[in-house]
Sequence to fold (152 residues):
Amino acid sequence: MTINQTQDQIIADFEGVDDWMDRYAMIIDLGNELPPIDERFKTPEHLIEGCQSRVWLNAELKDGIIYFTADSDAIIVKGIIALLIDVLNGHAPAEVADADLYFIDRIGLSENLSPTRSNGLLAMVRQMKMYAVAFRAIEQNSETAGQSNDNP
Fold:
């Protein structure tokens, strides 16, 4: 599925739930389903700056595709990062870097979070996109290096 198809599916899933306590329960369930992050990534280098809770995020590039893993010590935040991973995982760096994450506003997430949680959400999105930008630069550099090696 494309990033936008996944976002549209999330929007559809949330549209049938009007009560925000039920929506929070859905988000928490997503966090509980999040595969565990490898303990070696629970380090200060993998903590996201700007989150009130501790959120560890790792990204790996395999065959031109980004794979994210994450964890948090707060159940609602773990659910939020699970949502972001659901949308952005398994896509090329350019797709992730350029993604318009419209589902956040469409499901009412940003308006129903505390200001500190909203700042944390922005920090998570920013960090995921920074990984994508870095991976895209690495890919472009390796392509450029390959081209210069073809013409001695």
